[in-house]
Amino acid sequence: MNIKELNPDSSPQAAFGARLRRLREEQGWTQEELGIRMGYSGTHLSSVETGRKMPTLRLARCADEALGTGDAFECEWREMRQGSLLEGFPEYVEHEARAVEIRLYEVGAIPGLLQTPEYAATLEADAVRRGAITQEQADERVELVAERQASLARSPAPVVIAVLDEGSVRRPMGPKSVMEAQFDRLLEFAEQPNTVLQIAPFSMGERRPFSLPLYILTMSDRSLMLYAESVQRGYLERENTAVVPILTAYHQLQAEALSQAASVALIDKVRKGMS
Fold it and tell me: Helix, strand, or coil here: 106?
């Protein structure tokens, strides 16, 4: 059998594949035998072991379970994933999963916490088309969206307040079916007892305090965190002296934005205009 030599130092992806192969061989299993235990084909595992295919979070967790490695593969996957995400964002996501309140503002697109899988995939497919990321990185980002949304199902559920710039709902993404399903998702979000959904209309003009997306977290000890990002990088701020003025501006944004009832009506109007 022609076994491809691996250089674990060539990339994090190669290191993951080399570890998977080494531990599999220590068990005396073929790729097919490990694949049966993990729920993957031997061909798929071969592609991961040789670095031709990027591992997913699900695969990493299945490898940990099958090989008895605790969360070693999952931790390695999370470190590897940071390469396709903005600086600061992986750390922010860890705090988001424990926050008791999440306030967010988004411009031009539906935020990840509210996206359908199809909408998320449409966004990332365009990034792949432009050559900004690989298909494997796009798959990781879509999977991260699902992972973040799943964390909201914890008990007690966090309060989530979302203010979206009007352009977020008026900007079409993909075919009509994708937007219709996304509008359904927004309306379902607005009906939940622990959520608030508001639209910041274009008519706010210069009164809109923010021009870039941001997230404000309240933790269980009532401490605050701010995550904001530009095109090139993200930044996590923990100092209250820096976060409190942004929170004040966020309250002002909410006061100027449409009420939830009016926001839902606007979404319904935009949806009907697509027909």
Answer: strand
User: What CATH number is associated with residue 63?
Assistant: 1.10.260.40
Q: What DSSP state is assigned to residue 174? A: S
Q: Is the peptide bond before 209 cis (omega within 30 degrees of 0)?
A: no
Element (H, E) at 214: strand 214-218
Residue with tokens 């989530």: 160
Are 264 and 177 in a shared domain? yes
Residue 3 maps to a domain: no
Residues 187, 269 within the same domain: yes
Structure tokens at 74: 């999952």
pTM listed for this prediction? 0.71
Q: What domain count does the chain have?
A: 2
- Per-residue pLDDT of 23-63, as tens digits, reads 999 999 999 999 999 999 999 999 899 888 878 778 999 99
For 167-194, write each residue's pLDDT tens digit. Answer: 999 999 999 999 999 999 999 999 999 9
